[in-house]
TrEMBL record:
Signal peptide start and end residues: none
Name of this protein: F-box domain-containing protein
Pfam families on file: DUF7600
Residue ranges annotated for the F-box domain, each copy included: 205-251
Length: 480
């Protein structure tokens, strides 16, 4: 079998000589039950099986002596990208999911405990390249690449190609279990200094001279190490200040250079300063450290995306989709004029670029946006609402919207502007950049608007076409 780790971007393949590259877990679902996502035990890639044979219990491993066949599941890794849900006549697999190296999963859970459903739904919303490479919009810090062509496609390196790269040792080194780090924790050498002593500048009017030591310590602890270096070069007070253990321990906190050394939290070194200096020397010479830093930064990105999804439901009246079949029937007599780009139907095989409308919401009003603020103070919502990041579109009074303008990329709608009957154009909300603009005319009396979403964002907007709508205005319903 061959797949790609959804976190680090390196291939999960039986040909890999390193054991950690063959061992993995699956985040999977049973019979397309999107609300019941589970984590498998630790499995290992084999040559014989196209699907992954995984322990059902997340606490079990493939090499447990008492592991029986009844304790395992056949999981199709990457099949959750909808490739098996096509009209090709293939029988959908009972268990489908995404693979993550066991070492990468251990690293991820040291940073945070992901909600399995949110993690699975996020993967489901992303295009999938060859070797089931999840396209998060980045190249996994060098572990994958985008093909050249009209539609760039993500792909991971096969083990043979990866082995021939000059930096192959980095990507093939276990990012979780680093023996060199374990030895460093057991034996910390009391090194004298991090750098040659500074020659304090002659500045008798140093404004920091009057501050108490506690305030000085607070300042340097709050700064990045590079900023501390510059501050000590510019200020005699800071140049002669002894850096306390509190400062050195802060270098292992979020936002600082050794945040990824999670072992420091469980094994507090006797000297944070000596531990920091030793790591500075190890970091440049040990490939596993560089891979740890690479994967940790990817885990931070995933955590940020995961946190955006927490507690933010897709609001509005649900319409039936492949992802949510329990909604109201989509087989209606209404005609829709839709703004979107590269919106792929669930039967797409393969889903290697663009976006999927996994959820569909319908809201009915007179004239509105995704949040319609009425004079009475009551709001109508459609989709995901993030109150702290909303940007209003303020219309002149009175005003009648006659045209919606959308900036659309291959992953969804990124910018919106409105045009009124009088010709007034609102400022763009969102990130338009150089995106193509979709002009969407609306009837004089708009009663129904439908918005489609994946599990993260808006991907298309449709307006009900009235029987008496002037067809000559439909020339504006296009991308320019």
């Amino acid at each position: 079998m061959e797949s790609t780790c959804a976190l680090c971007g390196v291939c999960i393949c039986w040909e890999s000589p390193e054991r950690w590259l063959r061992e993995f877990r699956a985040v999977y679902t049973h019979n397309r039950n999107w609300s019941d996502i589970k984590l498998s035990g630790v499995s290992i890639a084999t040559e014989e099986s196209f699907t992954a044979i995984c322990p059902e219990d997340s606490d079990r491993k493939h090499d447990d002596e008492d592991l029986a066949d009844d304790d395992t599941l056949y999981i199709g890794l990457g099949s959750a990208n909808l490739r098996t849900r096509s009209t090709s006549g293939l029988q959908p697999l009972e268990f489908t999911g995404f693979g993550i190296h066991s070492a990468c999963w251990n690293l991820l859970t040291r940073l945070f405990q992901p909600d399995l459903q949110l993690l699975f739904h996020a993967c489901l919303s992303m295009p999938i390249g060859p070797r089931d490479t999840v396209d998060w919009g980045h190249d996994y810090n060098g572990a994958a690449f985008y093909s050249k062509g009209p539609v760039p496609e993500i792909d991971s390196y096969d083990p043979g190609t990866l082995a021939r790269r000059e930096d192959a040792a980095i990507f093939r080194s276990d990012p979780f279990d680093i023996p060199t780090l374990q030895r460093a924790l057991k034996s910390i050498y009391q090194l004298e200094s991090l750098s040659p002593p500074l020659d304090p500048p002659e500045n008798k009017s140093d404004i920091f001279n009057s501050l108490p030591t506690e305030i000085l310590h607070f300042i340097i602890t709050s700064l990045l190490s590079t900023d501390v270096k510059h501050l000590r070069e510019a200020s005699r007070t800071f140049a002669t200040l002894d850096l306390p253990e509190m400062f050195w321990s802060s270098r292992f906190g979020r936002g600082h250079e050794f945040h990824y050394v999670f072992e420091s939290l469980a094994n507090h070194p006797k000297s944070w300063r000596a531990f920091y200096i030793m790591l500075r020397m190890l970091d440049l010479s040990v490939p596993a450290f560089q891979n740890r830093r690479r994967v940790w930064s990817l885990a931070l990105r995933l955590q940020s995306l995961h946190n955006q999804m927490i507690g933010v439901p897709c609001q509005g009246q649900s319409r039936a989709t492949f992802f949510e079949p329990e909604g109201i029937s989509s087989e209606d007599q209404q005609q829709w004029s839709t703004a979107g780009r590269a919106v792929r139907p669930p039967t797409t095989t393969p889903f290697n670029f663009g976006c999927l409308p996994l959820r569909s919401r319908q809201v009915t009003w007179y004239i509105s946006g995704l949040r319609f603020v009425k004079e009475q103070g009551r709001d109508d919502f459609s989709g995901y609402i993030h109150p702290t990041t909303e940007e209003p579109i303020c219309l002149p009074q009175p005003a009648e919207i006659r045209e919606w303008c959308f900036g659309v990329d291959l992953r969804g709608i990124k910018a919106i502007s409105l045009k009124t009957e009088s010709g007034w154009n609102s400022p763009w909300v969102g990130e338009l950049g150089t995106l193509p603009i979709h002009h969407q005319s609306t009837p004089r009396h708009l009663y129904v608007m439908r918005a489609d979403f994946d599990t993260l964002k808006l991907v298309s907007i449709s307006f009900e076409v009235q029987p008496d709508q002037d067809r000559q205005t439909l020339y504006r319903d296009a991308i320019f």
